Amino acid sequence: MSVRIDPSILSADFVNFQREFETLEHADALHVDVMDNHFVPNLTFGLPMVKRMQEVSAKPLDVHLMIENVDVEAVKYAESGVFSVTFHLEAANSATSIAKNLRAAGARAGLAIKPNTNLNEVVELLPHFDQLLVMTVEPGFGGQALIEHTLEKVAKARRLIDTEKLDVWLQVDGGIDESNIERVAALGADTFVAGSAVFKATDRNAQIDRLRGLAEAGFKHLHL
Length: 224
Ligand code: DX5
Ligand code: ZN
Description:
By secondary structure, this protein is of the alpha/beta class. It contains eight helices and eight strands; from the N terminus they run βαβαβαβαββαβαβαα.
């Protein structure tokens, strides 16, 4: 297992994305939060912005859709050439068809669940996906505190992925910072979104390195 650190650009300066991207050289991917003010009570940007980001970013884009109508909309993001597209199970009618379409368009397929969605709901679906995103806060805003009970799902998801020998990255998003990343890695997450924890730092690359080091330390005491 290797650690991936994906800074969330929700914490970036929205009128200077290109400049902000250039401060994140040590990132594995840039996490791009698309919100429609319906699925979540916040609005960010949509497809035209993501297309333009894809043109200027030196890093792969990990798109997190917090929007409705994903059965129709998700594939459009994949077609823009981004690295991965993650949509919410709660917004989907046919999660497996969407996954198929995302992969056919050349993107990794990601499935996200909100804090109160049971992991049992994804068990059958997981073989169709490349990434599972266990939300560790209610989606919508950066800077919230991690919700402790979501970590049980992280541990369960790791056991499921390993037992079934699935090639699925286990991503966490929300409230991840230097105080908890080691513990969350020890439960089996391998892909870490961090917004405020990265953007608050004066040296963002040093902060990414620090988070990575702590997560790697967590892997050493993985309790499965
Ligand atoms: C929240 C977004 C997150 C957010 C995380 O709904 O999905 O990606 O940017 O921000 P932090 O790391 O500040 O909790
Ligand atoms: Zn996100």
